[in-house]
């Protein structure tokens, strides 16, 4: 058991018969009245984000989780398949547990949040950046560089991204997985 003093980003807790992870929080001490903690919680089973306010000193039931290194193998009608890097065991995960699965290519190293007690996968976290090859891009207009103009492109995983005009087919680019934004050319 924990209290509101233990709240921090990434803490997993049991709330309303579901497992949530704290995405954001804010301790508030108003001039009048008791202190409280505003939280933004994301359900690890449904992906829904809810706002909740806990009064100061409220006890919460934290869930013990472990982050384990896995490697993405393939996906099929059963879900996305990953291999544990230490034990070589495979686990299948539904797409709803993965944010931006469209940026995963075979062999990508990811972290899976596992429930420590019943060994159930809770969510899949991609690395902050991935490097992918551009398979299709519209030709850029010559001389149109006065502004930061972006054009649509398709990468090797099938995802659509917006890239600058100078990016051509066959180039490798660095993409931020959380937002899907182009960062830079990869070397």
CATH class of the largest domain reads Mainly Beta
Secondary-structure element order, N to C? EEEEEEEEEEEEEEEE
Distance between the termini: 48 Å
Largest sheet: 6 strands, antiparallel
Widest beta sheet: strand line-up: 1-6-2-3-4-5
Structure report:
The chain has 187 residues and is an all-beta fold. The protein has 3 domains: 2-62, SH3 type barrels; 65-125, OB fold (Dihydrolipoamide Acetyltransferase, E2P), CATH 2.40.50.140; 129-185, Nucleic acid-binding proteins (OB fold (Dihydrolipoamide Acetyltransferase, E2P), Beta Barrel). It has no helices and 16 strands. It has strands at 2-3, 12-15, 18-28, 36-43, 49-55, 59-62, 65-76, 79-84, 90-93, 109-115, 121-125, 129-137, 150-155, 160-164, 172-176, 182-185. A 6-stranded antiparallel β-sheet has the order 1-6-2-3-4-5, with no helix packed on it. The protein has a 5-stranded antiparallel β-sheet with strand order 9-8-7-10-11, with no helix packed on it. The model has no long low-confidence stretch (mean pLDDT 88).
């Amino acid at each position: 058991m924990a209290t509101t003093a233990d709240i921090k980003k990434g803490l997993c807790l049991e709330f309303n018969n579901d497992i949530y992870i704290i995405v954001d929080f804010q301790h508030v001490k108003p001039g009048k009245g008791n202190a409280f903690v505003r939280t933004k919680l994301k359900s690890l089973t449904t992906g829904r984000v809810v706002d909740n306010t806990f009064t100061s000193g409220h006890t919460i039931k934290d869930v013990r989780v472990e982050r384990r290194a896995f490697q993405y193998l393939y996906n099929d009608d059963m879900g996305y398949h990953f291999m544990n890097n230490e034990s070589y065991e495979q686990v299948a995960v539904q797409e709803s547990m993965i944010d931006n699965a469209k940026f995963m290519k075979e062999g990508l190293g990811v972290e899976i949040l596992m429930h420590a007690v019943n060994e159930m996968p809770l969510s899949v976290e991609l690395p902050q950046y991935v490097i992918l090859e551009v398979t299709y891009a519209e030709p850029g207009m010559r001389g149109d560089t006065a502004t930061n103009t972006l054009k649509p492109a398709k990468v090797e995983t099938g995802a659509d991204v917006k890239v600058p005009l100078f990016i051509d087919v066959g180039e490798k680019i660095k993409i931020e997985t959380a937002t899907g934004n182009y960062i830079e050319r990869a070397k």
